[in-house]
Amino acid sequence: MENNKPEWLRKAEEEQAKFSETKFGKMTDGEIAQCNALENHKEQYPELHEQYREKALDAGWRNPEVQSPLGVKGGTKTASYRLESGYFQSEKWKQSQSKGGKTSGDNNVKSGHFDNIRKDAIKASHAHVTCPKCGNTGSVRNIKPIHFDNCIYPKMLEIISNYIKPEEELSIVKLSKDIAKDLNISSIGRVQTALKRNFLEPGVKPSRYQKWKLKQS
Ligand SMILES: [Zn+2]
Known about the structure:
This protein is mainly alpha-helical. The protein is 66% helix and 6% strand. The chain is built from twelve helices and four strands. The chain has helices at 7-21, 23-26, 29-44, 46-59, 64-73, 75-85, 91-110, 113-126, 140-143, 153-163, 172-183, 188-199; strands at 128-130, 137-139, 200-202, 212-214. The strands form two sheets. Strands 1-2 form a two-stranded antiparallel ribbon. A two-stranded antiparallel ribbon has the order 3-4. Helix 10 (153-163) crosses helix 12 and helix 11 crosses helix 12 (188-199). The protein starts with 6 loop residues before the first helix and ends with a strand. The protein binds zinc ion.
């Protein structure tokens, strides 16, 4: 029976197995969504990203004031030295911390930095992302809740390939109910939509109710 599986189904199983082994297959949904959104955002606003990059460079390794003390002191050595010397308990440290916090906080508000971050976050939530598990594309807000880690495609693929014979024609309502129950999903409609989109096509045998069968191609 295995050998009678339609070509697309065998391929889909293979691809799914391969995907699980990749680093993307092991990423959390949050990580994937972030990558996707960032890529989208970069594509949509290339100048903005160039600006960010330039700003970061100016504030970081292009800035001699920042670089020279860093170079002299060295990151972790400085930290352990400061810890041993009690520097972190000193007034100087406390002052530098509170001053830094206030100044940058103030600057962030005045410069509109916070406002920009907020706008970017809204834009990013509208950016389109692609679920790596099923290839569906949509806005982060819409697609996040039912794709990525919550995507039912891999599990459905498993069920479909194990339980439906290639020539079998069956009730999509019953099948959706069974799968929903199996996967502990409350929405039967969601399962039915996914079945029609990815796995099934209308049956051809005469029947009182519309039956469905595995897609042949
Ligand atoms: Zn998906």
